[in-house]
Q: What sequence folds into this?
């Protein structure tokens, strides 16, 4: 799978996770379709996809034995690094540490890791 296809997989997993885990009606930006996703966000999604893919490859697939929390934390940390790359002064919510994320965000990040894992 190319990095661009991986970025799209990431975005689709994010939207599916938001629709499943978000309490109530999500903000429109949370579920913006791929075609309308800003370029910086596509790039960030592709980079995080690639980091998860590499973790799985470098561990010979054994990273699949990480706990759901470890999987979600990895995605969240990779995403935070991308926010610092793309924004000089990112919004605090973009770079919140794992304990500060809402339960729906944690569950969605875990779902993203597992979607990438299944696509290998």
A:
């Amino acid at each position: 799978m190319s990095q661009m296809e991986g970025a799209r997989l990431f975005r689709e997993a994010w939207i599916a996770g938001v629709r499943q885990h978000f309490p109530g009606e999500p903000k429109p930006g949370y579920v913006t379709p791929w075609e309308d996703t800003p370029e910086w966000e596509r790039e960030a999604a592709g980079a995080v996809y690639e980091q998860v893919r590499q973790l799985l490859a470098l561990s010979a697939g054994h990273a699949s034995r990480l706990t759901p929390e470890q999987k979600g934390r990895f995605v969240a940390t990779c995403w935070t690094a991308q926010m610092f790359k793309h924004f000089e002064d990112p919004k605090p919510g973009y770079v919140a540490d794992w304990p500060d994320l809402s339960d729906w965000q944690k569950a969605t990040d875990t779902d993203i890791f597992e979607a990438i894992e299944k696509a290998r």
Q: What stands out?
A: Helices lie at 3-21, 39-58, 68-86, 103-119. Residues 15 and 32 are 8 Å apart (CA to CA). Residues 3-119 form one domain.
